[in-house]
Specification:
This protein is mainly beta and about 375 residues long. The chain has 2 helices and 30 strands.
């Protein structure tokens, strides 16, 4: 579901195997997301620790609280393809003192745009294992990510599919590809996911009955440590394309074959390394994120960065944001393009976790929205 932090893509293989479950295991929880309405002028976001959903209208520059549910934490809500219904998750995780086993009970709650509850799913129970035993017995609210861009009756979570017509749950052994929240194919046949097990590893395509097909990767695949950064993703008909520093990988969801093109995304060089790109619908303009790393500690958060609008064929650029203007390094900076790709929302979180902003830019590099999000106070003592 980007919201893999751009700074986590140290290699293609790493990028394919780092996802929402790992983030949760590391204590990061589900990343925040921007979910666009079909009109490409409004979007949803969550604040107040994922318990409140807010609609923002870019044209009017106005926000509206849609719903609040203190028993939920849904930083990544699902929006029906027609933009008329919202799905959030209610998830409780139970820990037992001295045990590394966990039990997770999840429900999907569906609301209309007036915040009226329309439907509640049955409970889905799953089990997990922590790296270390719990120090205490407790039950706590955990975060949930959903995607509702497929068939109207199917809602996709990171570990299951819920059918709202039959109220049936289908557990998944793979994880939907989180990058830019565009995992569902344009024809809605299924979705791209990450497989990470003893039997299979890498990208796969999954239909709504849970049938998994692995892509057949060529020997010269870019899925290796030399692949570089995962910069962008896009659908081209039946092909899901990943753009990396080292080239382009095309996954054909009909033939399940993989093609590699060793070409670079056109861009104007800047200080640091290109780590994220998002193209606008015109095909000529794009947003680019450049990061400067400490050469002595390349795994550490960036020491400097810049967000730029570029039109490489015209040799034009604008510097939109720098580290001096927004305390991003070490936090998150994720791109969420609108459905028509005339706008891109950049969701940022500071390293300290005390400042979050959603900045929206158009194809001319003009800022058309700047939304300050309420962030829970960071504890000074643990």
């Amino acid at each position: 579901m980007n919201a893999l932090p751009c700074s986590t893509h140290s290699s293609m293989r790493t990028a394919l195997l780092v996802g929402l479950p790992l983030l949760a295991a590391l204590g990061c929880g589900v990343p925040d997301a921007v979910v666009w309405f079909p009109d490409s002028n409004r979007f949803l976001y969550a604040d107040q620790e994922g318990s409140r959903l807010v609609e923002y209208d870019v044209t009017k520059g106005e926000s509206r609280v849609v719903l609040t549910n203190a028993e939920t934490n849904t930083p990544w809500p699902g929006l029906s393809a027609d933009g008329k219904l919202i799905a959030i998750g209610k998830s409780l995780t139970t820990y037992q003192e001295g045990s590394s086993d966990t039990t997770v009970e999840t429900q999907v709650l569906i609301y209309d745009l007036n915040g009226e509850l329309q439907q509640t799913s049955s409970l889905h129970t799953s089990h997990g294992e922590m790296m270390e035993p719990s120090f205490e017995s407790k039950t706590e609210i955990t975060s949930v990510a959903l995607n509702w861009s497929g068939p109207p009756e199917k809602i996709l979570l990171h570990n299951a599919i819920w059918d709202r017509t039959t109220d049936q749950w289908l557990p998944l052994e793979v994880m939907p590809m989180p990058f830019e929240n565009v995992m569902v194919s344009p024809d809605k046949r299924g979705f791209v996911a990450l497989a990470d097990s003893d039997e299979s590893e890498g990208l796969c395509f999954v239909d709504w009955q849970g049938r998994v097909k692995l892509f057949v990767e060529p020997e010269d695949s870019l899925l290796n440590d030399e692949a570089g950064e995962l910069l962008a993703s896009a659908w081209q008909g039946d092909k899901y394309c990943l753009y990396l520093t080292g080239g382009v990988v095309e996954y054909d969801t009909k033939t399940m074959q993989v093609a590699v093109r060793r070409e670079s995304l056109p861009h104007l060089p800047a200080a640091g390394n290109l780590t994220c790109v998002c193209k606008f619908a015109d095909g000529r303009s794009q947003l680019c994120l450049f990061e400067v790393k400490d050469p002595n500690d390349p795994q550490a958060p960036p020491v400097d960065w810049s967000l730029q609008w570029q039109a490489p064929d015209k040799n034009q650029r604008k510097v939109l944001l720098t580290a001096g203007e927004l305390a991003y390094p070490g936090g998150l900076a994720s791109f969420f393009p609108s459905p028509d790709r005339t706008k891109v929302a950049v969701d940022t979180m500071s390293d300290a976790g005390d400042e979050r902003r959603i900045l929206v830019y158009d194809a001319a590099g003009e800022k058309v929205a700047d939304v300050a999000i309420e962030v829970a106070p960071v504890p000074t003592e643990w």
